[in-house]
Amino acid sequence: MKKTLLAATLLCCLPTAHAADQNDASTLNPVVVTATRTPITADDALSSVSVITRADIERLQPLSVQDLLTGLPGVSFAQSGGLGQLTTLFLRGTNSTHTLVLVDGIRVGSATAGFARLEQIPVEQIERIEIVRGPRSSLYGADAIGGVIQIFTRHGQPNGGIAPSLSLTAGSHGLAGASAGLSGGDAHAWYNLSVGGQYTSGFPACRMGAAEAMAGCFADDPRDDAFRDWNGAFNAGYRWDNGTELAGDWLRSKSFVEYAGSPYGSNRAVDEQRVAGARLSFSPLEAWKLTLTAGQSRDLSTTYYQGSYYGAYYPLQQTGHADSRRNQASWQNDIALAADQLLTVGVDWQQEHVDSSTAYLATRRTDTGGFAQYQGTFGRNELQASARRDHNSQFGNHDTGALAWGYAFDHGLRVSASYGTAFHAPTFNDLYFPPFFGTPSANPQLRPETSHSTELGLQQQRDDWRWAVNAYETRINQMIVLDPARNYVPFNLSRARIRGVEGQLGTTLAGWQLQGYLTLQQPKNDDGGAANGNVLPRRPERTARIDLDRRFGAFGVGSTWYVAGRSYDDVANLHPLGGYGTLALRASWRFAPDWQVEGRLANALDHRYETVWYYNQPGRTWSLTLRYSPATR
Hints:
- By secondary structure, the chain is mainly beta.
- The chain is 7% helix and 55% strand.
- The chain contains eight helices and 33 strands.
- The protein has a 22-stranded antiparallel barrel. Strands 3-8-9-6-7 form a five-stranded mixed beta sheet.
- β1 and β2 form a beta hairpin.
- It is globular and about 70 Å long.
């Protein structure tokens, strides 16, 4: 850890950038709502926060959410192949089920698998992403051990006029994509409607030799694994003169993805994400704001498989479906006690329901949580405190809390310290997934996971540059782990300890916009057994990313350099995944006031690497996008 702290200190001496447009002071300190469930500036969050704007998305030219987020502080991914293949997120070294994902305030993710399918959320539908690192169960309940990621879909703006948009994309592996939208608004109302699609013929997801090694997809499957997706989004809202606001959001994405696993016939999955929500906010009294929210998210998945015998003599066979639904509602009250003092109290309710072609011993459970949060500023001191009690119909009561303090020095320098607890209940798959060919695939004796985290932060923001360093330790009790050595039957690891340091900083020098991020972490098994001290699976201990961009009139150029250290695919650390580095190059040309062409070369040096054992990652690929976005009128 001494080496870790030294490396983070050295990083802070380098100039890098933080926001999409450093000439706009507001981008240096954006307003976020995810950190405290109330609008505050990023500096007031007393936690490590990243904000991705629509301008960032168009500048970086990502094809997926993974492309966009990889290398941000504490963020790493494991992907079983190329575009559209199964992708899991590890935030601050915690499990993929330990990150709560929200879309426009609605909790999303499979109730069976326990995590959100980020690869199925189309980038072209995204307006903004907020990432809050650290435990947030005291505000959001279960799952927020590593942090919270909230995705906001594209919205119209009040007084924004009518704004159409269009994009067309082509690239390697038969890539083709398109999106179109129309947004607008006046003094009271706003709306947005957009549709899109994406297709790629793909490449073989599983590396040859998997059959002999009994790894990856357990078969040598040389065929390309294609992916296509159709998506649409709509939102609208109205704000009255007295401040009362009514709004609704809807997102649907349907994907068809081929997956490896049989050399004799086609395998594919049809996956669908649906999110819908509505919210009403008003002020019964001048110092009291009340917000009511209701919504539903659905994760639908149907899997098709054709083995050697059926592949030769029968048409494609449907083998099963696993659909899950989350109904949810929230009642939140924000009460101004005095100047710079805010009390937030409320109740959240959620119901999870599973509908599957395989028999689960239980298919439904509910969780009701009551929470309270205090935020206060006293001179240079800032204080945030929160507490919550959740009642889970399966696992009883769970109490969580958090306390954070910050002190503002001169010249934009601030120090912060925080402590928080969190929990996660085992998923339906963890508990009840049916046996696979007679072999157990679940463990009904699993216990809920609990955690406690401490964090120290130091940051400084000036007119044209910013840097921040955060050091943290998270201890997780009864951590749920899947291990190939145990046939992927989940079990409770008595203890895990994750220590880490994150650095991020930025500036604009001579017209060049630079951004830099560094993550050094130790996600370790701490149960005292044979694997004690081993690195938790698929989590690199070191990652770094540097973005460099500049505009020359109508032209823009940029690059992203990302490196990741070695990780392991299993609990025993017998299957190493080598470290690697990738370089992405990009350029854009605004050849007319409303038209721009964009080009990107990803993995420009054509490095071969794996983030999941025996699963291929894309080599050198290219993409071109034609974008039409006229000014509002």
